[in-house]
Amino acid sequence: MTPETAPSLDISVFLEVIESGDAAQRTLLASQLAAFLSDPATAATERDQVTPAVLKLAVDSVADVRRTLAEGVAFASNLHADIVFSIIADEDDIALPFLAGTPSLNAWHMQAILRVGDLQRQIQVALRPDITAEAVSMAVKTSPPEPCMALFENPSVRFSDWQYHILYERFGKNEGIVEHLLGCPDLPLDIRIMQAKRASSRMHMLMTERGWLSAHDAADVVADAEENAILKILIEANDEELQRTIPFLISKSLLTASILVRAAACGDLHVVEWALAYLSGIGRVRAREMMAGRGLGGFKALHAKSGLPQSSYGLLQAACDVARDAQEEGIALDPHSFGRRLIEALMTGYENMPASERGRHLDVIARYADDRVRLIAKRLKADFVRAA
Hints:
Layout (H helix, E strand, L loop, with lengths): L11 H9 L2 H16 L5 H15 L4 H10 L8 H8 L3 H10 L5 H10 L2 H9 L5 H10 L2 H9 L7 H11 L3 H8 L6 H21 L5 H21 L3 H13 L5 H9 L3 H12 L3 H8 L6 H9 L6 H17 L5 H14 L6 H14 L2 H17 L1
Helix pairs in contact: 2-3, 2-4, 3-5, 4-6, 6-8, 7-9, 8-10, 10-12, 11-12, 13-14, 14-16, 15-17, 16-17, 16-20, 17-18, 17-19, 18-19, 20-21, 21-22, 21-23, 22-23
């Protein structure tokens, strides 16, 4: 017994209307066939049978016919690919609304549009809430700035670290995309740091070209701004981010003693701990113990192993001592209290520390510590100058 086959639809009447009917008749037919395709009860074989007639309507010379068809199948699932692409190839006012909402757009369709479609169609794909991971990857790697910008506006899109890096590598000089990148809370910190460095370089060129400062003074101003930006990024980072970022800074020779001294002056020893652990090639737990004065040789041995210049030792040692004392007392110090204790430690402890070195450390605190602490450090520094 042979299985029953679905009866074949007679589409000759549809083709007759398309060939001989007027615009109103073709528009009515477009509406009827669109409803037929949109009906979930329509069998797949019947969809296939009417596809040739629908394709003719999709390229009708009258825009109202094509628009009626596009609007009628806008929410139809499983449309034939040829119908989808015929509508997408139409004028923008017909194609773009269809492209924005049709559920018949699959992963392959999206990638095809991103590969060969014009700018507006690529943007529309980038904005779709159902955009696939493959389409996002293709847009990130190959699309112009505008579709990539649209990806940032799509709440369904979540970039991976490597996609962030590709976007920055491709569009690091595009202000709009850079602004969007910097607004992403999960942006890798190395990108933020490289952008801060790039911004500093532009500032340096601007100041020297316009003669605002001498080349030497401009370099100092820019270096100061760059280190402040890097330190701010590190202070706001979590442990996972620091674990990735500190090695990056070291590899780029961007983790300077100056940055660590600034962190210490602000009481941000968490950053100092991570940095010293990597610079010394030891674990964080051991570095923390040595900073607290425990372990073989204590902080002096840790500092020597890190390769930091001796000029940074005194302030870093004093900051570690202040942090250890606060921990033993069971109190948490805000930046103001930490800074005051740091000044007190530098002025009253460390009998072997020369006055010139104390003055140099006070100068650091006067530049980088809490605002109120800076005033105290500046006054003490002035007293040192008068006494000298």
